[in-house]
């Protein structure tokens, strides 16, 4: 199961009201490969990019240079990034 599949599973479980303990136990992996860690990194990157008020294409390109995102998971990563930069 890829990290992006785990993110999708976690979001789905959260939407259904599953407790975090159950989600984490189902998706248990080393911390740096966990869904929570990946979401946190994406969200922090989005917040940092928006800190000056606008997210530029250069900032998105820089994120993509640092983090590998499989083509079939780009939609999921974009969804998390865009959610995080909204407020």
Q: What do you see in this structure?
A:
This protein has 87 residues and is mainly α. It contains 5 helices and no strands. Helix 1 crosses helix 3 (35-50) and helix 3 packs across helix 5.
Number of helices: 5
Beta-strand residue fraction? under 5%
- Average of per-residue pLDDT values: 83
Helical proportion? 55-70%
- State the separation between the terminal residues, measured CA to CA: 31 Å
Number of strands: 0
Radius of gyration: 13 Å
Shape: globular
Regions with little confidence, pLDDT below 50 for 5+ residues:
none
Major sheet size, sense and barrel closure: none
SSE string, helix = H, strand = E? HHHHH
SS-based structural class?
Answer: mainly alpha
Keywords:
globular; 87 residues; mainly alpha; 0% strand
Concise structural overview:
The protein is mainly α and 87 residues long.
Question: What's the structural blueprint in terms of helices and strands?
Answer:
Elements: H1 3-15, H2 20-26, H3 35-50, H4 57-66, H5 74-84
Helix pairs in contact: 1-3, 3-5
């Amino acid at each position: 199961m890829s990290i992006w599949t785990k993110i999708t599973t976690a979001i789905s479980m959260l939407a259904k009201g599953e407790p975090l303990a159950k989600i984490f136990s189902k998706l248990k992996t080393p911390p740096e490969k966990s869904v929570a860690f990946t979401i946190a990194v994406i969200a922090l990157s989005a917040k940092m990019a928006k800190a000056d008020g606008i997210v530029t294409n250069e900032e998105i390109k820089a994120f993509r240079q640092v983090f590998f995102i499989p083509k079939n998971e780009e939609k999921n990563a974009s969804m998390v990034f865009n959610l995080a930069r909204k407020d």
